[in-house]
Amino acid sequence: MTWTPDHPIVSIRDVEKSFGTLKVLKGISMDVMKGEVICIIGPSGSGKSTLIRCINALNDIQGGSITVEGQEVHDHKLDKLALRRKVGMVFQQYNLFPHKTALENIMMAPVKVLKEDKAKVAERARSLLKKVRLEGKEDSYPGELSGGQQQRVAIARSLAMNPDVMLFDEVTAALDPETVKEVLVTIKDLAAEGMTCILVTHEMGFAREVADHIYFTDKGVIVEHGPPTTFFDNAKDPRTKEFLSQIL
């Protein structure tokens, strides 16, 4: 099937995932349209991070299907590099190379993996640093940057592959409170530009502000979902109400 923008850019159907005897995802389904911002929330161990790691095939699945732009992610014939060009991911830990500058960290994958022209990639990397509000930090090493700045370099590094979808896995969880905002502003800017974003987050105010749709997971299932106003102000499920009462 040829994918068109009137179909979901990411479609998750009845996905099951186990680690040994532990069943982490128990039949998860959701659709994400191009340009949508989806926030996945829930208690620790509810399967949130596992789910988004399955979207770009960092985790395999035992049942169901995940398609990105109509392509089955877990088809063993699928070129994983082609998938990771389409689907960027930013993790809780920044994983920057400490011996490379901010600019060099951003340039590495396009130059080494995609074999793109170094001068063109450098130009793109500089504009991405400007986009994430780090102009002037091109020659700084990770150890010279705050956690929030390092995380923004990690976001720019992911964007350097020109993805169609961005996954964010609790990207502010390891940050000091004062640096959380600068990372969230960066993600908000991306969303405003129309980037499709799927976020696992504990930042409820942010989720309410930027998400088109909120999914609440617990014990490997989607308990409840809906647009932010409905979800936060009029949750129906007792488990959702209990969770929200503890964090809001």
Structural description of this entry:
The chain has 248 residues and is α/β, with parallel strands linked by helices. It has one domain: P-loop containing nucleotide triphosphate hydrolases (Rossmann fold, 3-Layer(aba) Sandwich). Helices cover 38% and strands 24% of the residues. It is built from nine helices and ten strands. The strands form two sheets. Strands 6-7-8-3-9-10 form a six-stranded mixed β-sheet, with helices on both faces. Strands 2-1-4-5 form a four-stranded antiparallel β-sheet, with helices on one face. β1 (10-19) and β2 form a beta hairpin. α3 (102-113) runs parallel beside α5 (147-159) and α4 (118-131) packs across α5 (147-159). Its main location: membrane.
Summarize the structure.
Helix content is 38%, strand content 24%. It is an alpha/beta fold. The model has no long low-confidence stretch (mean pLDDT 93).
